Structure prediction request, 345 residues.
Amino acid sequence: MNELLKNLTEAVGVSSNEKEVRLLIRDLIADYVDEWHVDALGNLLALKKGTGASPLRVLVDAHMDEVGLMITDIDSNGTLKFEGVGGFNDRTLLGKVVQVGPKKITGVIGARPVHLLEANQRNSVVKMDAMRIDIGAKNKDAANGKVNVGDFAAFVTEYEELGVTAVGKAFDDRAGCAALVELLRARPYPFDLYASFSVQEEVGLRGAEVAAYGINPDVALVLECTPAYDLPNENDVSPNVALGKGPSIYVMDRVTIQDPRLVGHITRTAVANGIPFQIRQPGGGGTNTAVIQRTRGGIPAATIAVPGRHAHTPTMIINLEDYANVVKLAEATLRSLTPDVIKRN
Ligand SMILES: [Zn+2]
Prediction:
């Protein structure tokens, strides 16, 4: 059992509410870094001093937050109205168990049951505003004592390993956080390595923008979990990331073209070390690379990701060999990174 992934994915950290994850990571890295602090937005920033062989300042980022819900109202019958925090497809929510607020009150996301629907309603998607979280309260007063408007609700999914795959919540991006913890626990790099475990990625890449500004690195690497779309495959979908085929390297997404020199360095490193990899197909999505790249005078940046099925739902699946290969590829990429890689002529 991968305890690091288990502990990190079972921790709760809906965007802006990352404290539980931050404290966990702080304890995991404290003995392996030279300095750490928490900035004003809540990013956990750490420095692992290098051997002094290279003058580069290198940033590696992974976001701590996960998608979740926020309670917006309490109905007279004691059920909770909510909004999404981060991107969701409403249809993935019904019937899921959540934990609400700091007291972690258990609730179930429900809507009018199938027996009571008109024929035409059965075929349409229930919208989020027609769903409620049921915490078993008998009326508004009873619910009020347990939860407050503005409380966050997080999904509850126990981490489990099924052979070479792992099932859990929030692999996006606790898999990246776990990989970054492993990088910090390795021997020193030729350069000073700065780590940002950033906040509020899922609501607009907010934490990393501040972290990168504060750290002011020469180059940055983002560790992510990117949607695998290899299931179901009866439709003719454009080729995309598949589970088990190795780390996924971003080249272009909705908001970024990854630094081509870094993409070249990463793919050459993979080939040289016999690490499998796949190019993530250009298209939607975006990572913290987008804001890091545009910080200050511009910072060359690229993203390596663990493929994850069922992204932005309460339950994801990753392949543990893909995860291990992301750690391997990120470490090899860093150890062979020289100022020449990002030199402009
Ligand atoms: Zn992510």
Q: What stands out?
A: The pocket of zinc ion is lined by residues 63, 172-173, 201, 224-225 (CB under 6 Å). The chain has nine helices and 17 strands. The longest helix spans residues 320-335. The radius of gyration is 21 Å.
